[in-house]
Amino acid sequence: MLLAQCHCGQISVTATHKPSTVTECNCSICGRFGARWAYYKQIEVTVKTTGSETHTYRWGDEDIDFHHCPNCGCMTHYTGTGKQSEQDRVAINTRMCNPQDMIDITVRHFDGADTWQYLD
Ligand SMILES: [Zn+2]
Fold first, then answer.
1. Distance from residue 50's CA to the centre of ligand 1 (Å)
2. Where does the record place the CENP-V/GFA domain (predicted)?
3. Cα 55 to averaged position of ligand 1 atoms, centre (Å)
């Protein structure tokens, strides 16, 4: 199992299994967030909130929503908005996980800024 939690604990995201790799993307938004993504299908992921719902941010082609805790501001995951390729994808920001749980997982580098290919 994988558990990701925002800083204040209002948002918890769990997945059925740990990822084999996580992805750092250098695009304009992932770079700013400093996110490390683990990718899942929607059915593999459960999001729980105590208090209010997540805040979301959309940009560009608007095919994903970035979810933020309304209290502490941490960006916990993104979900597809129903368009195209990202439709069934949930990406968990593993920066919200216990670092000890992630220590043995390979980090891959994705060139989302330019070539849209993995660099490693
Ligand atoms: Zn929070």
1. 10
2. 2-117
3. 11
**What does DSSP say about strands 89-93 and 106-110: parallel, antiparallel, or unpaired?**
unpaired
Q: Which residues contact 65 (CB under 8 A, 6 or more apart)?
A: 56, 57, 58, 78, 79, 80, 81
99 vs 53: CA distance, rounded Å? 25
CA of 95 to the centre of ligand 1 (A): 13
Q: Which domains does the chain have, with CATH numbers?
A: 2-110 (2.170.150.70)
Express each pLDDT in 1-39 by its tens digit: 999 999 999 999 999 999 999 999 999 999 999 999 999
Span from the CA of 8 to the centroid of ligand 1 (angstroms): 4
Helix (H) or strand (E) holding 102: helix 99-102
Neighbours of 27 (CB within 10 A): 15
